[in-house]
Design a protein that fits this description.
Blueprint (H helix, E strand, L loop, with lengths): L5 E4 L9 H14 L6 H4 L7 H12 L5 H19 L11 H10 L3 E5 L5 H8 L7 E3 L12 H10 L6 E5 L2 H9 L3 E5 L10 E3 L7 H10 L7
Parallel strand pairs: 1-2, 1-4, 2-3, 4-5, 5-6
Helix pairs in contact: 1-4, 3-4
């Protein structure tokens, strides 16, 4: 049976839905390159780094660019994305997330963010929830993208908690694999058919609490909540 000491949260699609802003920014860039970029294509970018996302878009369009050109395009995409997130506020926090994290804090469970986003701190500030996190591991602190476990192992280390006592909340397949590669219990947020490798899958935090999480962890098996 696992002992819960810390929870690590992905950002996009778990705490806030910035995925649509990423999609709009990537779509604008793709159109400038003459590439038809759809919402289905956008699913391939979940949980991966900015440069890898650009590579995927270029692969979709069958285009090859120099490293210098790719860096310039990635920076341009980020400028467009920043225009969107600078307009964000607390109303964009997904239902139940803040109350769940507050419940964790009230029960002395440590909380960290584990995200590939280099804008994670800015988003947390815009949402006014930066103070809820004991550690923030973002794209500026890691060199390996998910499914490599680096982001979550670094989070556990910064929290001074052993990996097996951590729970990860993720909405992407790559993130779930990263959590499992780190030896952590993983809760998938979203579609059970896509996130079936997670230990537990929930649609969101609206009807979820610490008691339910601990009950599922005691089973220490693959459980799913629809």
């Amino acid at each position: 049976m696992r002992t819960l000491k810390a929870c690590l949260f992905d950002l996009d699609g778990v705490i806030v839905d910035t995925a649509r802003y990423h999609f709009l920014a990537w779509k604008q860039l793709a159109e400038q390159l003459g590439i038809d970029f759809t919402e289905e294509h956008n699913e391939l970018l979940k949980g991966v780094s900015r440069m890898r996302s650009l590579d995927i878009i270029l692969e979709i369009g069958g285009k090859t660019l120099s490293e210098e050109e790719k860096t310039a395009l990635a920076n341009k995409k980020n400028e467009v994305y920043l225009e969107y997130i600078l307009k964000m506020d607390e109303s964009e926090i997904l239902p139940g997330v803040k109350s769940f994290i507050t419940e964790l804090k009230n029960n002395h469970i440590r909380v960290a963010l584990g995200s590939a986003s280099k804008n994670a701190r800015l988003i947390l500030k815009r949402l006014n929830i930066e103070n809820l996190f004991d550690a923030v591991i973002d794209g500026n602190k890691v060199s390996e993208a998910k499914p490599d476990p680096e982001v979550f192992l670094n989070g556990a280390a910064e929290l001074q908690v052993e990996p097996e006592a951590c729970v990860v909340f993720e909405d992407a397949v790559a993130g779930i694999e990263a959590a499992q590669n780190a030896g952590m219990f993983c809760v998938g947020i979203g579609d059970i058919t896509i996130l079936k490798k997670a230990n537990l899958v929930i649609p969101g935090f609206a009807d979820f609490n610490l008691e339910k999480l601990q009950a599922c962890m005691q089973e220490d098996s693959y459980l799913h909540v629809k």
